[in-house]
Amino acid sequence: MKRQNVRTLSLVVCTFTYLLIGAAVFDALESDTERKRWEVLSDMKNSLVRKYNITPEDYHMIEIVIIENKPHKAGPQWKFAGAFYFATVVLAMIGYGHSTPVTVGGKAFCMAYAMVGIPLGLVMFQSIGERLNKFASVVIRRAKCYLRCLTTEATEMNLMFATGMLSSIIITTGAAVFSRYEGWSYFDSFYYCFVTLTTIGFGDYVALQNDQALTSKPGYVALSLVFILFGLAVVAASINLLVLRFMTMQAEENIRDEDKDGSRTMLPIDGHAIAVRQRSHEDQASVCSCNCLGNKQCESGALLVERAPRALRRRASLAFTPDLIERASV
Q1: Checking CA distances to 289, which of 29, 51, 244, 303 falls within 20 to 30 Å?
Q2: Choices 1.20.1600.10, 3.20.20.210, 1.10.287.70, 3.90.330.10: CATH for 75-260
Q3: What own/partner pairs with CB < 8 Å and gap ≥ 24 does 57-66 have?
Q4: What Rg do the C-alpha atoms of the chain give, in angstroms?
Q5: Dist. CA 256–CA 218, nearest whole Å
Q6: pTM of the full structure
C-alpha cells in the first residue's frame, strides 16, 4: 500500500477516534447537568399549569409566543442594520440562527445569495490572510536584522507564531469588549469570540440581541462587524499557513515515493542532475486530453507545449533549489 493511502486511512481512523473521544467527554460533562435542568424546568412547568389552570394547547401557544418574541428584543431584525448583520453572518458561514428568513422569497434569495457570497468571502479572507502573512514576514525579517540574527528569513514557524499571537490578541480583546457591552462573564465572552471566529456559530451567545442594540448602538454594531471580518481574516491567515505546510509535506512525500519507485530519470542540465518523472503512453494521453486547448501533440506522442510566460519560467527556475536537486539526485 502506498504511503499516501496509508496516510489517508490513518487520518480517517484518527478523526473518528477523536469524534468518539469527544462524544465520551461531552457525555460525561454535560449529561448530568442536562438531566437536572430538565427536571427543574418540568417542575416549573407543572407548577405554572396547576397554578393558572393552563391547558396543554394554551401552554404550547405561550411557548411559541415566547420563542418567536426573543429575536425582537434586539430591535427590527430585517431593517438595514439587522439585514447587514445577517448578510455578514451568511457570508462568513457562522450561522448563529438568531434570525432566519420566513418568506418564500427571502429563503430563495438567501440560498442564491449564499451560493455567490460564500465563495467570494472565502477568496477574500484567503487573500487578506496572504497579505497579512506577507506583512508579518517583512516585520519578522526586519526584526531579525535589527537583532542581528544569523538567519534573517521568516520561517513557517515564525509566521505561525505571529498569526497565533495576533489571533489570541483579537480574541482576548474582543472578549473584554463583549463582556462590557453584553453583560456576559469574561469566560462566556471568550467562548463567544472563539465560536464566532472558528465559524462554529452555535447561537447560544449572539451579540447585538439586547436593548434594541441594532438601532440604538450603531457604533457597537460597526465594532461587532469589524471584529467578525478582521478576526476571520486573521484566522484565515493561520489556516493558510497550515494548508501550505501540509501541501509541502505531501509534495515531499510524493517526491520520496517517486524516487523509491524509480519513476524518475536523471537528466543533465547546466552541469546538474535534474530528476524528471517518466510518463507512460497513458499519462501522455491523459495530459493531452486535459490540455487540449493550447497544447499540441506530434505524431510520436510527445507534447509540444507553448513557451511559458516569463513569470512561470522564473518560478520554475526558482523551484530547482540546491536542496531539491540534492534530494532528487540521491
Answers
A1: 244
A2: 1.10.287.70
A3: none
A4: 28
A5: 57
A6: 0.72
